[in-house]
Design goal:
Helices cover about 10% and strands about 30% of the residues. It is mainly β and about 400 residues long. The model is unreliable at about 1-20 (pLDDT under 50).
Length: about 400
């Protein structure tokens, strides 16, 4: 805003066409502000000082910042955090050509992101966190070419991260955490070379944490915790960076994902991880041999099997600690009935402990050889018709 400008108010209804030394408020910007007020229940805002008030210049509207662009005054900033905005954002709001900063955080905005929002090239900083916004980001986000700080955290957004997200090369801070995004992080993440902060925690992202992240040497905070990642590449570009914090806990990673990065990343949070394998139910005849086994990726794993009996008592050390199974040195007997799981630790010093999901073992008695055929039929029926459930 230029200093020393004297405002002269000339009113014509709710949309004042105001002249400032011969300059007027851009009409499209004025209409956009009115659309925002009406769409988000402006009469119930916590603060709405001077909005649509007769005889009041837009420069005095709460949360609005103006600047001079050519012959007009234009809206460059709208800051209304924690102000009880309810309802969807209007398309007209993002037709404001010089809008640089939007802060509507901690409100009750719902609906999807307007296409015009995703294509507004003037935006530099956007905070829509802690709202109720739904839908996907979509390919139109490529239009936000000047954005350097984008916060859409704590909403209800879903779908994959679009390829176009990785073209926003001016991004310094990106917060998409606490949504329901799915799919992978593209190797194209390396294109966001100015990123200092990347928050993607508490989503449903899966597959691999790509090594290309380590090509972003400006990174100071990386949070990928509480997702569904199953593999993690080595991140050598992050090794030894004193200020960098990396969080990957509560995923589905195993020892081989952690070890090299454990020795290299200075501030590295990786424990706990989700349980490994899937729940199973096995039904056997008394006397049958069988292996209950698991296998976890790693180079120095210690396996300790536990059994929970029918009364809920947990008995550890049911198998050899250095083996990955309970060997069938004899046929299972009725007293072996119970629920088994394995606690796996790492002798490389990471301190990570992984636990398998449970295997329920049912033992069926065979009273005589003549019962075997009938028992087989019953076991097959039990297993094929969801008997364990």
């Amino acid at each position: 805003m230029k200093r020393g400008v004297k405002f002269i108010f000339l009113l014509t209804g709710l949309l004042p066409w105001n002249f400032v030394q011969g300059q007027k408020i851009n009409q499209q910007d004025s209409l956009a502000l009115v659309a925002l007020y009406n769409s988000t229940n402006g009469s119930s805002w916590t603060q709405s000082d001077n909005w649509l008030a007769s005889g009041t210049h837009v420069v005095n509207w709460y949360g609005v910042t103006l600047d001079i662009a050519g012959p007009d005054l234009v809206v460059t900033e709208i800051r209304l955090p924690g102000n009880n905005l309810t309802g969807p954002l209007p398309d007209a709001l993002f037709l404001v050509n010089y809008l640089k900063i939007v802060d509507f955080s901690n409100n009750a905005i719902n609906g999807t992101l307007p296409p015009a929002f995703l294509n507004l090239g003037s935006l530099q900083k956007v905070n829509l966190s802690n709202n109720q916004i739904t839908g996907t980001l979509g390919s139109g986000i490529a239009g936000m070419g000047s954005i350097n700080n984008l916060d859409l955290s704590f909403n209800h957004l879903d779908g994959p991260l679009p390829d176009e997200l990785y073209t926003l090369s001016d991004l310094v801070e990106l917060r998409l955490n606490n949504n329901s995004f799915t799919g992978e992080i593209s190797k194209s993440i390396k294109n966001l070379s100015l990123l200092q902060l990347l928050y993607l925690q508490h989503n449903h992202l899966d597959s691999r944490i790509p090594g290309e992240l380590a090509q972003i040497n400006s990174m100071t905070e990386l949070d990928l915790s509480n997702n569904w990642f199953t593999h993690m590449d080595d991140l050598p570009g992050f090794y030894g960076l004193a200020e960098l914090s990396v969080k990957v806990e509560n995923n589905r990673l195993q020892f081989d994902d952690i070890l090299n990065n454990f020795n290299g990343i200075n501030i590295f949070s990786f424990s706990p991880q989700d349980s490994v394998n899937s729940h199973k139910t096995i039904t056997l005849f008394e006397g049958d041999p069988f292996y209950i086994q698991t296998k976890v990726r790693g180079t120095a794993n210690l396996y300790n099997w536990h059994k929970i009996d029918h009364s809920g008592v947990d008995y550890p050390d049911q198998g050899f600690n250095f083996d990955f199974n309970i060997p069938a040195v004899r046929g299972f007997e009725y007293q072996d009935l119970g629920t088994y799981y394995c606690v796996v630790t790492d002798d490389n010093g990471t301190g990570l402990t992984l636990t398998t999901r449970t295997t329920r073992l049912n033992i069926l008695p065979c009273r005589s050889k003549n019962d075997v055929g009938d028992s087989l039929v019953l076991v097959a029926l039990f297993n094929s018709t969801g008997g364990p459930n």
